[in-house]
Design goal:
Blueprint (H helix, E strand, L loop, with lengths): L3 E5 L2 E5 L23 H13 L5 H4 L23
Antiparallel strand pairs: 1-2
């Protein structure tokens, strides 16, 4: 088949198509993120990784707070970052 190319930062990557059951019946695509990342993308992903955690227990028990959970939690498959 044809070689699929996707642009990541300042490099072109050629790779085999990745099977994704949710994309059945559509054109074959590559995985959303390649192994070659720019520093900016890597820092952005690291920040999102650190933000995606539950609220500390000591903060929940603090007097006078109404925040009980992190409403911005993101599931790796459902909520996409948008890079």
């Amino acid at each position: 088949g044809p070689v699929l190319l996707e642009f990541f930062g300042s490099r072109w990557r050629s790779d085999k198509p990745v099977f994704c059951p949710s994309l059945l019946g559509t054109t074959p695509t590559l995985a959303a993120m390649g192994s070659v990342k720019t520093l900016t993308v890597k820092m952005h992903l690291a920040k999102k990784l650190k933000q995606n955690r539950p609220l500390p227990q000591w903060y929940r028990m603090k007097t006078g707070t109404k925040i009980r959970y992190n409403k911005f939690r993101r599931h790796w498959r459902r909520g996409k970052i948008g890079l």
